[in-house]
Write the structure tokens for this entry.
Amino acid sequence: MHESSPILFDLCVMALAAVGGFIGALIGLGGGALVVPGLVMLLGVPMKTAVSASLVAVVFTSIGAAMIPGRDPLTNYRVGLLLELVAGVASIVGALTAFLISTIALQITFGVVLLCTAALSMRRVEDVDTSMLPSTGLAARLALDGVQETAAGPRIYRIRRVGWGLAIMGLAGTIAGMLGLGAGAVKVLSMDTCMKMPFRTSTVTSNFMIGATAAAGSLVFLRLGMIDPVIAGLVAIGIVPGAMLGSWLVSRIKLRALRLVFLLFVSVMGVQMLLKAAGVLP
Amino acid sequence: MSDQAEIDRLRDRQLDPSTGASQRLMIRCMVALSLTLVALGEVLSIVRHEPPRTEHGLLETLRDLPRGDALMLLGVLVGIATPIARAVLLARWFARRGERAMVIISVVLVAIILSGLLLRH
């Protein structure tokens, strides 16, 4: 379609990104989970071009969400910046890996990771009260603890196991750079389950972080000539309004059933990517 | 330290509203500039019937400004620069507060992100 009808192709890329950004914001997976399979399987874009365009889209998803007021008191910038040191390096490593490995290996990894992150997104999360615990280690030295507004009033949360958090960020950053995903599900897992940060604070902080992680990987892709400016630019144009609409809607309606349907849909995309890698799908 | 005193101390460590507003304004301006450049590039590509590029080297493409796809790449670059500018703004905020460790972390993060540009194809 790219050669025969370039304008129609461009419109399809924008529409796909808008839908990907919208659904991604609703289910909390970011746009990349749908943009990459959509570009590859629906529009015939090469896998590596799709991954690099998607990573650019992740940058725009993050900064699009940052334009919404009221997020700053929820974001723990200290934790985000610290964890980003590892995630940023890992993203560069991931991008270089994507450049070096074969397309089939990339498709298999993408399919497996997509299935895992969809499963991660279905977990139920309950915040743990850490307010009575002492502030220790790196969390105390860098003053990483914070305060969360709850229905019962403000509550202090203590940051635990920073080392484990940093280690998991290595995995999240590699996934992001290699597959063009935000890897927000892994980042949130690291912060809420491992470091005991409240779930809402983890998601907002993760949103701040995915932009920096994706920027690190995107610059590698840019330097290696892997970013097609037309596809990446059009994905950016589409994903910003889609993600903003999804973010606006997600806080206003209860979406549990719809969310499960979309997560199932993402899982099907993951399976399709594996079938494509196996040569079963064209 | 009492709970209330610690809550006040931790709240004081959150990003203050004026820095938050400056950050949002900066992001809005950069996103608007980025998307405008991309849209302008797309229109130029269509109007001029520019042939698609097969190689996408960063400097080679930017040298072709004001070709449509070069303008689109510039727009993408502005978008990618936004999280970096955000980290710089946070470093400045930490510096004003005298939090040296956080300034160092922010600056190192900016250096890590930019290090990707040192690669050669």
